[in-house]
Amino acid sequence: MSSLIRWEPLEELTSLQNEMRRMFERNPVRPWWPPEGMNLDMAMDVYEKQDNTIVKIALPGVKPEDVQVSVLGNALTITGEVKGEENVEEKNYIRRERRYGKFSRTVSLPGQLPADKIQAEYENGVLILTIPKAEEAKSKRIQVKAK
Fold this sequence. Notes:
By secondary structure, the protein is mainly β.
C-alpha cells in the first residue's frame, strides 16, 4: 500500500528564507563599518520627572562644540562628529576599534518640545538635556469631594 505525502509550498519558502539568511550571515565581504550618519553606539536614556523630561546621551570622546541639538515639533535630533587622530597612518594600525565619523540620532518625545526652553549640559562624556513639559502635559491632581 502506498501513501501520499502532501506538498506544502509555504514550507519550501521558509526553507529558502532560512538559507538566504544563513548566506548573508556568512558573507565575507559584508562591511563592518556603519554607513555615513548611522548611530555610532549613541546610548540614550530618557525619563520623566514631574516638570521635565530628561535625556542623557553617552558621547565619549566628543567635544561639546562638535555636537548639535535641534528640535522640530516633537522630534529631538542630536548630530555631531567624532574626529579621528591625524598623526597615525592607517597602515601602522594593529587593531582599530574606536569609531570615528559623523553620527545622528532622532527620537520622538511626547508633546511639542519647547526648543527655546531646553537646557543642554555636557559633563564627563554625557550630554544631558532638560526639557520642560508643557502645562497641558503635566499631570494634575484633582481633589475628590464627598457629598
